[in-house]
Amino acid sequence: MASTGPLNPESDTFENRPVFYIGQHDSSRREPLTDDQYGQFLDSGFRFVTAPITNEHFFQRVVGLYKTHLAEQEQWAQQRGLTAGQQANPSLPPPVVPTLTDKDTPLSPSYYISSLVGYASPWIDLCSPDPHISSISRQVLNLEAAYANFCGVRTIVVPGPRRDECGRGVAQYARAIQEALVANRVNIIVHMPMYREPGLEEKAQTLSAIFDIEKEAEAEAEAEKEIDLFGAWDSWHTIRSVCSYSTRLFVALRIPRRAPEKELQERWFAEPLHFLTLGASIFQQNRAGNPTLSRHHQDMINRYMRLKNTPWLVLCDVGPRPEELVALSKKMASEYPSLAEATQARRDTRRQPPNAFVGYLRYLERQQQPFSAMETPVLTNFQDWLQPPLQPLADNLESATYEVFEGDPVKYDQYEKAVFEAMTEWKELKKPTSSATPENPSNPELVVTVAGAGRGPLVARVLRAAERTGTPIQIWALEKNQDAYVYLLRRNKQEWGNRVTLVKTDMRGWEGPRLQGREGVIGKVDILVTELLGSFGDNELSPECVDGIQSHIARPHGISIPHSYTAHLSPISTPRLYADISSRVVGDPNAFVTPWVVRLFAIDYVAQKAPGHPKFQQTWEFVHPVEVARADDFAAEHGKAARYATPGVGSMGGSSGTNEHNARHCHLTFVCRARGVIHGLAGFFESVLYASQTGDGATAPVEISILPEQIDKKSKDMISWFPIFFPLKKPLYFPQDTELEVSMWRQTDDTKVWYEWLVEVYTWVGPKTRIKVGASDLHSSRKVGCLM
Amino acid sequence: MASTGPLNPESDTFENRPVFYIGQHDSSRREPLTDDQYGQFLDSGFRFVTAPITNEHFFQRVVGLYKTHLAEQEQWAQQRGLTAGQQANPSLPPPVVPTLTDKDTPLSPSYYISSLVGYASPWIDLCSPDPHISSISRQVLNLEAAYANFCGVRTIVVPGPRRDECGRGVAQYARAIQEALVANRVNIIVHMPMYREPGLEEKAQTLSAIFDIEKEAEAEAEAEKEIDLFGAWDSWHTIRSVCSYSTRLFVALRIPRRAPEKELQERWFAEPLHFLTLGASIFQQNRAGNPTLSRHHQDMINRYMRLKNTPWLVLCDVGPRPEELVALSKKMASEYPSLAEATQARRDTRRQPPNAFVGYLRYLERQQQPFSAMETPVLTNFQDWLQPPLQPLADNLESATYEVFEGDPVKYDQYEKAVFEAMTEWKELKKPTSSATPENPSNPELVVTVAGAGRGPLVARVLRAAERTGTPIQIWALEKNQDAYVYLLRRNKQEWGNRVTLVKTDMRGWEGPRLQGREGVIGKVDILVTELLGSFGDNELSPECVDGIQSHIARPHGISIPHSYTAHLSPISTPRLYADISSRVVGDPNAFVTPWVVRLFAIDYVAQKAPGHPKFQQTWEFVHPVEVARADDFAAEHGKAARYATPGVGSMGGSSGTNEHNARHCHLTFVCRARGVIHGLAGFFESVLYASQTGDGATAPVEISILPEQIDKKSKDMISWFPIFFPLKKPLYFPQDTELEVSMWRQTDDTKVWYEWLVEVYTWVGPKTRIKVGASDLHSSRKVGCLM
């Protein structure tokens, strides 16, 4: 979709709310507009129109072709004493549609051709039960797509499958679209209803209808059928699956007369919506006789308009009719207005769109909520944009990267609050500091260490919390990045009055704090502060790093900020990310086993909130420090040495098992009511930075969270972390009343940490019967694992 | 599996029936056998025994480790006033199993180690509901697999998952096996029951059982459950899927007390069976008190013994007990027999196996049906062996290839019969020959053409049929292969008395028969004989070739032999071929879209015969010659020229549509009662070579068929064609009561022919409700299509 002026933040017409791009489709139009007519359309407030690719002449030829074929069949049957239709002649080849002549198409290359949207012949029926009609339809589509492509049309709309019925015709329809996509370079937009409204579906005058292929019994069966809310979506899913999620395949979504439940709206929200099409019948009349939309319709459109690629609106069979345009055109031609007059006339109409429907949509446009702080162009650009995960332990970050991370006041406010409460409570509970000794019991300085200090944001917050609580502290800051270390040295001198003891070291190799004023004595740390969390909590190896330094934490009173963190999952449908990852596989064979960091937006959370099965579920938890009993043994005995020696513990796939206590496993069950498809798992984290130890329950823990359901409550507007996405190699389809069983592992050897994930699909087919219907591969990110 | 002497046709001990390779497993064995004991086992008729990898000492250490862990948990809970088990300590790391010491394992490298089969500790429970027990079990498996691997053991047996329950533990079990496979080079054989016999399953003394992890309620629920015939297979399917169909993963299948229905037997027939294990309890006693098996058990074993890789038989807890062996060994040691005496003693026992169960199995072995003519070593080697499809039009065949094809008397007998009947009927019906003209009405010679004569087998048969029917003929033989042409020239001179007019030409470029004795007159062909059929009928382009020559067939009487042919499909489960194709993908990216020619054997036809839905279903038909009305137009107007010019017909994906009349499409529904998985579609053909034209119905048509249900009736022992296999990129799982909807297309442009296929899964979940549960990709063989 081309970025139009008002959508382009670089443009001076940039508006701070979504922009409506409105077009028109006239199903009775048999000729494309003349240049003049097109100009008038633009003046009526429309930005584009659809154009038929072939005309009535071609239609009649195709009908004639099929009639000849029928006659031949009949003749053959008569010769054999059969009644017509009783048996087809096996040796009679099916009709072959001749190529187009100049009489068959009104379309030619023209100056506005690339802004035209071609509309394939509405009378084709690609999934007709009659094999010859479906074959003819497929040939017509190929002819039209090829000719439109030749003329320079960039996009054609194809009427969607006429039926949703199981398996039969949709596969055939899908294959025809796939063939047209492969043979041409045009984009194809399939015109789909949001759902089929029983009794409200117009019977299209297709070849099948003309030749009465639909048997009456079938038509009745159709009318009796219950409403199948997800039937149209399901057909679309088959089509795009057969087309391998082509990035040239889009949906034109027909807005229904009755807005459906949110679940279905959200399903389509995740699909590549190019057009929303609106017929006159979905509008109501207000008291002034002008068209309006119901609140439900407005909400639905407003929601879709927040998409990064805003869908275009197409008014169907609304606006000037061809005959009106012809009259208008003749009038203009007869009057020979001067160029100035014509321009003025156009300006007039532009000021006051003559079309009431367009006028109403423009009104809706003005009512759109302005973009919020979370919808800045920069943040919007991150929507559904895959970022490879960081390797913070193996790689040194650049200053600019630190700066981005530091730019999140919410996160650091929470950290300061956590340190503040920890210091306050330390005083209240009269906990001894580790700098106090029998010989020097009056030394009340709290020993604080910021491990992984980066450019010092946490150091600054710790100093401020100490000041606000009036707590005397000795503070250490550890940093392994030699370049950030220079920055810290300078800041210590300039800002912190050299109050901070800076140590250039990997925290896992630190000797511990040499207490001030006590030559040669290595003490313990009262408060350890780290910011090592990733989008999935533990995915940037916070557990391993804090383990590596926890032997320096004072016992029993010393604490770690964060105190604990949990990882969370929810299965999602995200065709866009699936297509994106598929396109990367050639260059990056691990693309489907990489946990991507991505600001998930045009996605559908398929799971429902159900008793015992929330929409977002916790996979596991890490708590710091780990129990002394054995964790310190790990750190002491097997810590760094374990990489080189094989001590007498454990054996995990050839490793020594040193880090096995940080392995995790979970098995979660998600409940899905409607049928759908998932492309992977969305991952999040929450962390308790500090939980009050008084146990009175009066003080809420200080938390941060990126869980969609919690972030506004716990850390609103925090932007430091986007979610993580664990893809599936193959989309996993599931029927209604499904339970998705997710198995996930956090695995580790002596050198790295990775995840493995597997999804199985079980469906309830009765009150007591649950059947397995499918499963994903076992996915492993070992090859792109996080290095320890 | 190593090929043993009697299985090797090169060996002089080669026996003309399946050979039984019998071993023993003793579940109470805690130490491997000494060399002497092992020798005695061999003398009792066994060929191998299993050996434990670790001993009681290790078991007690692991139990102790877990007890310590429980005590720590309890202590933590008491400190917090919780009852034990109420809440786990989140910061207490799980137990890590120490590596083995010399006290933990009796196993050492020894001279017979590679013939030993290691048996993993039976007390591990990889899918225990207790995460710590499953973690310990996984660690134990890793330690044991690694140590066995070190010692030189090539294969270890691992007890299968203890439960089949949906989703929960099996995924975890599967992942543990996968980890052991990746970390070691040993083969892993999972010991699975054929199905779980309710009430007959022995409760294994696993860690879970010892620590009472299985709650009583669960156990009761288990006992109440209905028999789930395919539950164990389903668990196996999960395991091998998670292990990516590793070729180092096998099944040891426990033969149940009650032989199950054929459907389940056939399911396992297609799996990589390494062992069949037989407990004493499946045997009955005959009147003499000796063990025997029921007829059902015998049939089942006989069937499995026809596999190319014959499974080994393992008698479980049958045969000498360790204490007996110890006594025996001591006796031998105390007696110090001379080498000659010992050898003699062994010979004696060998002659008369001391074990009654082994004796009975040896009896069964002698009862095996000798290998049939279709089970020669050569034909057996072709079982499940993938052959890339021929390109007979583009490539010239070698003489040896022709010779193989000619070596099938059944096929040529049928051809001769067809020609014989055609000639007989020609005479009976007094049809005029095309060599007769008004000027020369008395010329009664039938004009026969063999197109694609190769080395001449059909020419010989035509000559013989003419002789047998006393029909005067003029015969042409066309061949495009210049080298085969030389062979024909020689044969014509030496065998056929130069009666045959040989033309070196592609049949599609032939000018037609220049009638004998009528200078310059090009006539028509009365009988056209071709052998262009492939495994799927039309897959070697018979339709296109015959089209290219059919303008020379005399009308209305001229005929084509074959008259017509049909293609047929059935979905199959074939893990072996799936694994094979998967392993080829790196070198051949089209491996999964190639229709392979393969002698299908270790496969499972998953479809049932159901009303209106046979097990094998016809996809489409071709009839020759095509109706004159338009097919000749194709041939004449657009034949060969169509490749270079675009005539005014059709448009199929950029081609001119010349061959569009040979495109086909079908949609088939297959019914599956039990759940399962498919890996692709098996394809077959049938052909009517000649159908009587008298219409009296008295004469059966002359047919050939490779359809499993028809071949014995129509062309028994015909070996010219193996089936064709259309693979699926991903195995497609389906629940019980499923309908597999198969869409298939025969596609064509101006240069080649290819197939496309798609399978969708729909399941009945009530008398009226059918839900979609999955679908394959759309597969296309275009890239490996057959060149025209």
TrEMBL record, chains A, B:
Transmembrane segments: none annotated. Pfam families: PRMT5 (PF05185), PRMT5_C (PF17286), PRMT5_TIM (PF17285). Residues 77-89 have a biased composition (Polar residues). Residues 564-787 form the PRMT5 oligomerisation domain. Residues 45-366 form the PRMT5 TIM barrel domain. The active site is at E531, E540. The keyword Repeat does not apply. S-adenosyl-L-methionine binds at Y402, K411, Y412, E479, D506, M507. One of its GO terms (cellular component) is cytosol. GO terms for biological process: methylation; regulation of DNA-templated transcription. The keyword Methyltransferase applies. Keywords: Methyltransferase, S-adenosyl-L-methionine, Transferase. One of its GO terms (molecular function) is protein-arginine N-methyltransferase activity. Residues 77-100 are annotated as: Disordered. The record marks F405 as: Critical for specifying symmetric addition of methyl groups. Belongs to the class I-like SAM-binding methyltransferase superfamily. This is Protein arginine N-methyltransferase. It comes from Trichocladium antarcticum.
